[in-house]
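User: Please fill in residues for this 282-position structure.
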């Protein structure tokens, strides 16, 4: 499968502080790739490098099969969408007029505004001035702006950090649909549940280094223990080994009608991150 992004031995230093250390990964066309880690791990620095907002110190970065330019390339910027924490909006304009500016910039038909506002659950707010919106609503407008031109590659830096569960779910549904339509998504988050729901593959970043990279399922299986938890009718919870003796015990419970449920003891992505780094995601 074609790689949309290829990063090799990427390093970034700010004075004496090294923010990224020998980072290498690729993002395949059509996938949702999660870049996961706590605040200060280097996630936002990576996105800023990939979107030409920041120069890297050393290493190679290719996007759409070509080396990343040192300056923003207008033709490349037409192919990407960006949501970061500094994505400014025009406070004195309405939601609709903010998006209209970007329709004109990208040569997109005006009817697209209604479509993206529906996706971010803001259809009723199109006439509202941006300065009157809550932080979470502004974030949703910024996301609408990032996807208004149906980019080939979408960069999302903590896209639901200021949203409540209902609107987060709505955004997730919109992102899944966008991905189905062919948009490749590069997602940074410290929300492991969000990564589980959206990402085809994830990379764990800590102190500027990638600690692990694989599909969520493969990571959970790799770090799972060798036991199974069963719940019996008398509400006892039992942990048994995944072996012949354990299989026989399960068979006996099933034969007697005593078994209610069986669960494999796979860790969450958060559990795995703590195991690898000793740090809790904040």
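Assistant: Residues filled in for all 282 positions:
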């Amino acid at each position: 499968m074609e790689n949309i992004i290829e990063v090799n031995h990427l390093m970034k230093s700010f004075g004496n502080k090294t923010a990224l250390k020998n980072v290498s990964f690729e993002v395949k066309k059509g996938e949702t790739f999660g870049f996961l880690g706590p605040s200060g791990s280097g996630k936002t620095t990576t996105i800023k490098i990939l979107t030409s907002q920041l120069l890297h110190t050393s290493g190679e970065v290719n996007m759409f099969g070509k080396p990343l330019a040192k300056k923003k390339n207008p033709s490349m910027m037409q192919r990407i969408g960006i949501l970061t924490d500094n994505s400014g909006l025009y406070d004195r304009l309405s939601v609709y007029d903010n998006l209209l500016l970007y329709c004109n910039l990208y040569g997109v038909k005006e009817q697209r505004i209604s479509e993206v506002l529906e996706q971010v659950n803001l259809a009723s707010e199109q006439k509202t001035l941006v300065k009157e919106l809550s932080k979470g609503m502004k974030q949703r407008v910024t996301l609408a702006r990032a996807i208004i031109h149906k980019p080939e590659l979408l960069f999302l830096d903590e896209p639901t950090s200021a949203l409540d569960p209902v609107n987060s779910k709505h955004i997730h549904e919109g992102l899944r649909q966008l991905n189905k339509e062919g948009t490749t998504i590069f997602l940074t988050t410290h929300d492991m549940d969000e990564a589980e729901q959206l990402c085809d593959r994830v990379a764990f970043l800590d102190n500027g280094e990638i600690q692990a990279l694989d599909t969520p399922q493969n990571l959970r299986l790799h770090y799972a223990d060798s036991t199974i938890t069963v719940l019996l009718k008398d509400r006892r919870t039992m942990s048994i080994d995944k072996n012949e003796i354990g299989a026989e015990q399960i068979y006996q419970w099933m034969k007697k009608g005593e078994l209610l449920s069986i669960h494999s003891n796979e860790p969450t992505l958060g559990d795995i991150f703590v195991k690898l780094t000793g740090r809790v995601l904040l």
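For context: The CA atoms of residues 165 and 193 lie 12 Å apart.
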